[in-house]
């Protein structure tokens, strides 16, 4: 591969996980920019906020009261997007008006009793506790016979639609395989049929030789800016060992995942010295009790920021009508993330 061409000539890149294309048009970075570039002051959050519906002992919006939890806390979402007990129906008129009922279960997981902590500022033991809750939720929800997919995801920051700075994530378990995992499953399958190996095992092997898109790693996991990244500082977290879900973790792997989550989110916060917003989530095998040897455990981070804490990338215009486009290369984004410290800027002396 001619790496210099990729830094100079507008081109398309292929995402083998979704089998979609993105456009890379670097010359646009030279265009004049009149948007805002200032830093935003870090919000000074209290450790406990009496008005927060996720703090221990507080009342939630629908009147339920949180226990005085001391580590993590899981509850059924009071405004769940999906409901478990709904009438089943399937409608199809001429293949054009097609609808099916979709049962599901939505939960919220508080990471900590502390209102002001985020993943990069939690201890490794505290993050490990969260990972154990994720694994327990995955195992519990996959036992529900109609649950065929479990999505654990975190929206962080108001810009990503997070409703509250209290550290938390959501779990949505539902009956159908959602659109993106369905595409990924088809790609994992096609790759395995064609090459008799795993798409992400082979991809990590390639990236670990090239190095230019790798940000950080430990014995269990690695984070890189994927060759086909759409968002400016999008990253892909991959397990180095081939397995398909949190249920398959070996002893010690939760600690390794905690280590990589803390290091990566610290780098993100340090990039613009802000509490870095993103949507992130784990992509795990479907939970319909079939066997998925082709699936490889991974997570995606999709951060919206582009040039500073206040300048955001919008997916509009050409991107809505055609395909995503980016103007800093995955390689230069990776270089910037790689050179950042793994000591949080708020913890520096
Ligand atoms: P987000 O910040 O990612 O939106 O997650 C918070 C979730 O918490 C959101 O889905 C739920 C919202 O429905 N919620 C409750 O279940 N109870 C409340 O009292 C307020 C918010
Ligand atoms: Zn709170």
Structure, explained:
This protein has helices spanning 3-8, 124-142, 179-195, 199-210, 253-272, 318-321, 330-338, and strands at residues 11-15, 20-24, 73-76, 90-93, 97-100, 104-110, 149-156, 168-174, 214-217, 221-224, 235-239, 278-283, 298-302, 325-326. It has 349 residues and is α+β, with helices and mostly antiparallel strands. The strands form three sheets. The protein has a nine-stranded antiparallel beta sheet with strand order 3-6-8-7-12-13-11-10-9, sandwiched between helices. It is globular, with a radius of gyration of 21 Å. The model has no long low-confidence stretch (mean pLDDT 94). The chain binds 5,6-dihydrouridine-5'-monophosphate and zinc ion (ZN).
Number of strands: 14
Low-confidence spans: pLDDT under 50, at least 5 residues? Answer: none
Distance between the termini: 44 Å
The amount of helix comes to: 10-25%
Note the run of SSEs as H and E. HEEEEEEHEEHHEEEHEEHEH
Overall body shape: globular
